[in-house]
What we know:
Layout lengths: L3 E6 L1 H4 L2 H16 L3 E6 L2 H11 L5 E2 L2 E2 L3 H25 L4 E5 L6 E5 L12 E6 L2 H8 L3 E5 L1 E3 L5 E3 L2 H12 L3 E6 L15 E3 H9 L7 H13 L5 E5 L4 H10 L4 E4 L7
Parallel strand pairs: 1-2, 1-11, 2-8, 5-8, 11-13, 12-14
Antiparallel strand pairs: 3-4, 6-7, 9-10, 13-14
Helix pairs in contact: 2-9, 3-4, 6-8, 7-8
Amino acid sequence: MKKIIVIKIGGSLIKQAEMLEPLIMALKKLINQGTKFIIVHGGGPQADELNQKLGIPIKKVNGKRITDSQTLLTVKMIYKGLLNTDLVALCEKNGIPSIGISGVDGKIAEVVKRPLINGVDFGFVGDIKKINNDLINILLKKNYLPIITCLAIDSNGQVFNINADTLATEIALKLKVNKLIFATNVAGISENKNNKYIKQLSIDKAEKMIKNGTATDGMIPKIENIKKAFMGGINKILIVGGLKEQSKWINTIKNDDYGTVIVPNYKFIK
């Protein structure tokens, strides 16, 4: 199979049309050049907005969402109903044949309920037990762009919320892809709000940023998943965003021209 890249698109980027559409246009050009893509997306900010409108409390621990029965309903509506549909429509507008699915479809993501962590019950949050890539491979073979949202299923047919960074990582590992990109609305990782983004970062230093409080909220699960990706053999991982030009998205996807490249410790160049 041709070169495959998994791109995780965060809900924060989806809210920024001036960044999202140039990214999709860049994917179209690269697809025409022979690269295959898989999009995995979240929608946390949009789910939070709906919960606030409905008066449903938002609960998170270390950047990880607690999903009670009410929140499960809202994330299903937002992730699969609204955002997945809109992303497919945007891709089709730009000439990319696309299929919108979730981890429930074809049992792409089979999960078990997350156990208590330090006494915290995360509710309907699943931990991935298995990735089934049959449906993804069929779509890629037929030249469709799979757009996968972060819902999953257990052996009893219960739907669970899962972290989109984790889903993207597990799919990338299962398919042994060439590159994993986390696309967001910020330029990359910075050591503080006043610094420019870090061009290259070792996973060891990234973990230290969690410990010293520099990396917080949604960056924590990203770094945790990046470490797992390295352990699984993926050596090209990029966190990038804030780009409003098609050409810049193309250059960073192909050549890592923008964003923060996270590398294994032994490859780190000081």
